[in-house]
Amino acid sequence: MSRPQKQRLEARGVAVAFGGIRALSGVDLEIWRGEVLGLIGPNGAGKTTMVNVLSGFQRPTSGSISLDGIDVSRLTARKIAQAGVGRSFQAARLFRAMTVEQNLSVAAIGSGLSRREARERALDILRWMGLERKADHRCDSLSYGDERRVSIARALALQPSFALLDEPASGMNDAECEALMEVISELPARFGCGVLLIEHNMKVIMGVCQRIHVLDGGQSLAEGSPQDIQKNPAVRRAYLGEKATDSTLAI
Amino acid sequence: MKSDTMSFATIGRFWFPVLALVIPLAIIVVVTGQFGGLSIQRTVIEMLISIVIVVGLYVFVGNSGIISFGHATFMAIAAYASAWQTCCEMLKPITMSGLPPFLRDQSIPLLPSAVVSVLLAGGAAFLTGLVIMRLTGLAASISTLAVLFILNVVYSNWDSVTMGSASIVGLPTYVTAWLALGCAVVAIVVAYLYQVSAFGLAIRATREDEVAAAASGISLYWSRLIAFTLSGFMVGLGGVLQAHYLGTVSINSFFLSFTFLALAMLIVGGMGSLAGAVVGVVVITAMVDIFRRLEGGISIGGEQWSLPAGTQELIIAAFMLLILVFRKDGIMAGREMTLPEQEHREKGLING
């Protein structure tokens, strides 16, 4: 591990309990700038809880979160966002009565830009994602696929050092998935950020991630390259039951 | 040359939502000033003052999505402050003996006193907001109602300063249609510039989705506190105008029935947009005026005919109910006045 400590978002021994239910128990996870890390696992594995912890929406029962080596476990969601952790939501959660450009500008303003600079950054990102024609459309008039893309674009408008994307491809058709994969793979180079990607679509995960972290029942099950994960017997059992065949996880 | 015309078009498009509200108001003032009777002219002035108040209310309620029942508080603070400074120099030492000497024994010129009163209202809104803007949703709304009750009780019983629940009469009446129009225009312009600013965008985001706004680095507390304070200044201006239009100040005119009427105006027009606030005032004022006349009695075919007293309130309430049932986002449904091409773009296409 020669990479400097400064450039990572790190969870150490994170546990979250809701009453008696342990959503996460002792998970270690780190995301480096410049990489795409996939976070996968069966339903209820604790993936979204992990994103909520990393983005400050869920305070861990124990364990800590550090950003570029600084402990951010006690910060509010807003402060963590301003410190450079952007996220999208499973349900897009757009500001529906506002335009696409305004949605992005809000995040840019949240990161400290003036209104004018925010608009420029917003239009920049929209152009890059091929959404510039939609800039002045209200978000309650968007198609489902556009809604999802705008929610990613908004997370990027924060100019985050880490972008946490919660199931960005859910409900997208094949062509939309392809386009989305292209966007996600270009994020590290274009924005200099690290990406944490939660996704059920294995084609997307295997296609864009350099590393994959597998959660099951709130615990880390495995971590490694896509090839390693595909071969990992424990992962296959968790995902597919004992009768896993070679073809199910392979793409 | 081309870039000049381009920027002219851009400026025109930017200001269109304001001009589309201000120009009709100016036309109303000119026309009623020329051809209207005295009672119509009075109605127009009342309407313009209501615009200052309701647009001020909109700055907080419309942008934050939190209903406030407490804004009459800041109007009352400004109206009373102005009364203390400008009213009845001879009577003050007797009727309001509890005032500090610099207020009790002299009058302060109109403009400085108006400015001070508005500042006081804004300051009171800021201090109140420091405490209650930590609350969200319904709790925030109810706490504004509590603020209104606190002020009402204090002012109703502070006899030596406020004359209790009696009216203070004899304020200089300097509010003309043109002054009221000027203030309404200022209120509309301020509200518009605020809502298109970074602050306005931030608070509108919190209205749409608090969680996503926090994830975008927006502070709910500060953005709401800014809106609440600005809104306090603006309704304070409305309070001063009302006091110096009627010439009297009375604490009960800043209580529940007024609060209801102001909110009804905002809800009927649509609290999601500045145009909604202005349109709501115009519509409700027209309705109130018509039914007030009918209550007063008219003669049809030589026969005197009138509606029972209270009909006007009843009709307004029923009208608000109908709006809430059939068009819950109000007449303007959260939209500003836009040029046709803009509207087309904003509507977008479901699959386009």
From TrEMBL, chain A:
Keywords in alphabetical order: ATP-binding, Nucleotide-binding, Transport
GO molecular function, a single term: ATP binding
SMART domains: AAA
Pfam families associated with the record: ABC_tran, BCA_ABC_TP_C
Annotated ABC transporter domain residues: 9-242
Family annotation (InterPro entries): AAA+_ATPase, ABC_AA/LPS_Transport, ABC_transporter-like_ATP-bd, BCA_ABC_TP_C, P-loop_NTPase
Identification of the protein by name: ABC transporter ATP-binding protein
Organism this protein belongs to: Shinella lacus
Taxonomic classification: Bacteria, Pseudomonadati, Pseudomonadota, Alphaproteobacteria, Hyphomicrobiales
